[in-house]
């Protein structure tokens, strides 16, 4: 692998993540995410092009707005760096293939859904539908055969049904219903890594939940509105890119 392709893909991923951040922030607000100047969150001053360079603008300004000196949330540069890294990993895994563009677009929509869920504790239907279509296309293009894709489709349906059952049995307190179709799409995207990905999702969610609980004062109660979509995305993508399979390890030890 030459250095040019990974670097170009990292830059592309960071740029796409910057757009995705605008999309997630303006969706359902009546604002256009294609037109209109970006404004400072603190003072509402229009941002200059120098303040909009993915990752670099935040690093060079040391996390402060150039217009008013207010602190900038690190979420945007972290999302930009993360999607850039995921684009590179996808290229390393798939190479130049039919599946690659579908996977890259699906990863961008995963980020959009996670950012929106973090902000609003809901997954918007238009983004979710677009993600499901791209995940299906990516899964079909990545599958070794039609039989393998049908197996992935069955596993995705079972995972989605399991999460939907949790939603109904908990009356929505454990997770939102939209997490089920989101997991369905992630399972199609990750194929054979779907079941390990589901395990990782619950393990990551449990670890972060315990950490949040321990970090809060004993007199306070942890909010029940903790979005689960970020844990699903982290777990499935971890399994997809690392190919770690705890199920195989458990089987070997038994």
- Roughly how many Å apart are the termini? 39 Å
Question: What is the tally of helical segments?
Answer: 10
**Which radius of gyration do the C-alpha atoms yield?**
19 Å
**Secondary structure category:** mainly alpha
Shape: globular
Number of strands: 0
The average pLDDT score comes to 87
The domain tally reads 2
Strand content: under 5%
Low-confidence parts lasting 5 or more residues at pLDDT below 50? Answer: none
Strands, helices and their partners?
Elements: H1 4-26, H2 56-60, H3 75-94, H4 99-120, H5 125-142, H6 146-169, H7 179-190, H8 194-215, H9 229-242, H10 246-253
Helix pairs in contact: 1-3, 1-4, 3-4, 4-5, 5-7, 6-7, 7-8, 7-9, 8-9
Describe the model.
- The chain has 254 residues and is mainly α.
- It has 2 domains: 1-96, no CATH class; 100-254, no CATH class.
- It has helices at 4-26, 56-60, 75-94, 99-120, 125-142, 146-169, 179-190, 194-215, 229-242, 246-253.
- The N and C termini lie far apart (39 Å).
Report a brief summary of the structure.
The protein has 254 residues and is an all-alpha fold.
